């Protein structure tokens, strides 16, 4: 289902309106501490779709302790997705369900509210400077960080040989380089998140956090390539889907039988792709 020109224009106006509320700097005391003293809960969100059906998905919110990264809370719910997928407007398809999950947590377990959310997607690194991490941050008024696995090619940023060479130059965990668009604005940071994976992450500001703090926190949350809050939200949402009657296979067996290879170690279950 495609979005009509009228709907796209409405979405663009809404993005422009909400963008004015984005705060691109640290607002919390824990953000200013080198070891994030005072940070106790980190959240991650994800939507996983039923294979072959883009109208049904599992919306997942998890909250992990920090710095131990143990799961304190999870909320997985089946949702009916009606908005079409349109590049640059993913938030209008998915964010309403994530906002509802945060609101349920605030009502039912307010003591477990995350102090920051990690989002599988982009923040300021977006064609109109207002990606999913910005959208969710503004609507929940929580600090949010965008963490993408692939480069969104905007403002002159391209995945060319120069970019690939810069990625290859990241030899150790924690090494970074900035994503500077042709406008001169730094839109995000490329981060090598662990020594076992040469594939980087693309970190960008969502809301109420500086880019430097965002990068430091993402690195601190990585046991594997993908930060643990996002990784756990993804694993748990897909596991929830496989337990639904409509799923062809159920449970962990289906997870292990999928196209990815999975590794079970001291730090828990992770896909082989996450280690690359």
- Rg (C-alpha, Å): 18 Å
Class from secondary-structure proportions = alpha+beta
DSSP, total strands: 10
**Coarse morphology:** globular
Quaternary class: single chain
Task: Give the amount of beta strand, in percent.
Answer: 15-25%
Run of helices and strands: HEEEHEHEHEEEHHHEEH
Mean pLDDT: 90
Residues in helices, as a percent range: 25-40%
CA distance, first residue to last residue: 35 Å
The low-confidence runs, each spanning 5 or more residues with pLDDT under 50, are 248-269, 271-276
Helix segment count? 8
Query: Order of strands in the sheet with the most strands?
Result: 3-2-1-4-5-8-7-6
Please describe the biggest sheet, giving its number of strands, its sense, and whether it closes into a barrel. 8 strands, mixed
Kindly summarize this structure in a few lines.
The chain is of the alpha+beta class.
């Amino acid at each position: 289902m495609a979005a009509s020109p009228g709907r796209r224009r409405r979405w663009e106006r809404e993005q422009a309106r909400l963008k004015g509320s984005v705060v691109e700097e640290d607002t919390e005391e824990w953000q200013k501490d080198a070891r994030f003293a005072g940070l106790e809960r980190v959240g991650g969100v994800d939507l996983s779709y039923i294979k072959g059906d883009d109208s049904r998905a599992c919306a997942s919110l998890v909250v992990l302790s920090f710095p131990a990264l143990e799961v304190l809370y999870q909320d997985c719910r089946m949702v009916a997705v009606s908005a079409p997928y349109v590049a640059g407007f993913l938030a209008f398809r998915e964010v309403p369900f994530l906002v509802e999950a945060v609101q349920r947590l605030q009502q039912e377990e307010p003591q477990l509210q995350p102090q920051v959310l990690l989002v599988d997607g982009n923040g300021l690194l977006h064609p109109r400077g207002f990606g999913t991490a910005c959208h969710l941050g503004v609507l929940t008024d929580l600090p949010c960080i965008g963490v993408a696995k692939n480069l969104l090619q905007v403002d002159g940023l391209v995945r060319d040989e120069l970019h690939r060479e810069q990625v290859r130059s990241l030899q150790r965990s924690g090494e970074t380089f900035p994503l500077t668009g042709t406008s001169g604005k730094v839109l995000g940071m490329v981060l090598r998140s662990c020594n076992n994976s040469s594939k980087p992450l693309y970190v960008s500001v969502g809301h109420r956090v500086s880019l430097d703090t965002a990068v430091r926190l993402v690195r601190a949350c990585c046991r594997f390539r993908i930060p643990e809050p996002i990784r756990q939200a993804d694993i748990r949402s897909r596991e929830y889907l496989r337990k639904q009657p409509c799923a062809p296979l159920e449970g962990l067996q289906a997870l292990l039988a999928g196209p990815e290879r999975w590794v079970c170690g001291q730090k828990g279950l992770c896909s082989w792709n996450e280690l690359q």
